[in-house]
Every structure is written in structure tokens, then in C-alpha cells.
Amino acid sequence: MDLVRSWIRRLECPTCKTAAGRACRTAGGRPTDHHRARRDAAGPIPYEEWRKQGLIPEQRTYTMPAVLKETEKARADFNVDTALADGVAVVRMFLADRLGLFLQGEEAMDRIDDAVRQLIEVRGPVGTADLVTVLASLVTALLSANAGPDGDPDALFEAVIHAQVDIARRMRTTERNRADN
Asked: What is the C-alpha separation between 149 and 74, in angstroms, rounded?
């Protein structure tokens, strides 16, 4: 903004006759935005030249963390709110790394902790990451135990989430019907 402002102010304003380097003035003498005649007289703003000189920083691109992508996928898959989708994403990540967890691999735990921290940093305080990590590991352990030796914990998890969402929606419909009667 300062570069643009100084570019426009390099000339005297033809409308209010303000000197070069100063802000345009209203009829009452107060500073105002630049008059159109002054902007037109200044000519096109040389953004490309300023970029080449390094006066305008390059635009940074940000990539969405994997856990947030997984959250968006969970929201679309189950049509649920963000909080439940966050939980689903974290448990899915645990299930994906269950071999590393089963072997008590530090790398798998670190990857999960980093993913949970990224999620928590976007959603809330960092201190709750450990709680979410423990909760997700417990859910994963229960799913693995319930799936049995030949079962698929991922499929069981999907079925549990679908069942819970269906129950919650039926309960909400029942509550509405009771309120209407």
C-alpha cells in the first residue's frame, strides 16, 4: 500500500492542488483518498517492476495438511459436522498406521502426533493434542479387537460411524416430531 500511495502522490493533485508527496484534501481541508484525476495523472502502477526489484514479496502457496484433507473427506463421506469429521480423520489416520502402532514404532506415533497437532492448531489449543491422540489410539485398539483376527478395522469403523450418524439423525427427527405434537 505504501508503494502505491507514494506512486500516486509523486505528482501534484490537479483537483485539490495538493503538493507532491502529500495526501489529497477535502474541501474542508481534511485528508482523503486520492482524487481520480491524480490517480489518472500518475499512470499505471508498475507492479511488475517492483516485483523484479524485490519490493513486492512473492505470493506464498500454502498446502492443506493431510489431516485437514482427511477431515473434509470425512465430512463429505458421512455428511457430518466438523467436530465429528475431525475425530473420524484422526482415527482413520491411526487405522492407516496401525502396523506402526502395533509394533510401537516411534515414527508412526510421531506422524500421528504431528497430524493431530496440525488439526488442533487450526481448531483450538495445542495442549489438547495428547488427549486426542490417546482417545484415537483407544478407539483404534477397540476397533481392532472387535474386528477380530480376520476382520477389517477400517470397514468396522465405517460401519460404526454410519450407524452412529443414522441413530443421531433418527433421534433428531423423533425430537422434532415430539415438539410438533
From this structure: 26
Q: Where are the alpha helices (DSSP H) in 25-128?
A: 36-42, 47-53, 66-78, 82-96, 98-102, 106-123
Q: Report d(CA 120, CA 168) in Å as an integer.
A: 25
Rounded Cα distance, 83 and 93, in Å: 16
DSSP state of 141: H
C-alpha span between 33 and 43 (Å, rounded)? 16
Q: Tell me the percentage of the chain whose pLDDT exceeds 90.
A: 1
Please give the model's pTM, rounded to 2 decimal places: 0.44
Element (H, E) at 166: helix 153-180
pLDDT score of 106 more than 70: no
**Among candidate residues 101, 177, 162, 99, the one with its CA nearest the CA of residue 133:** 101
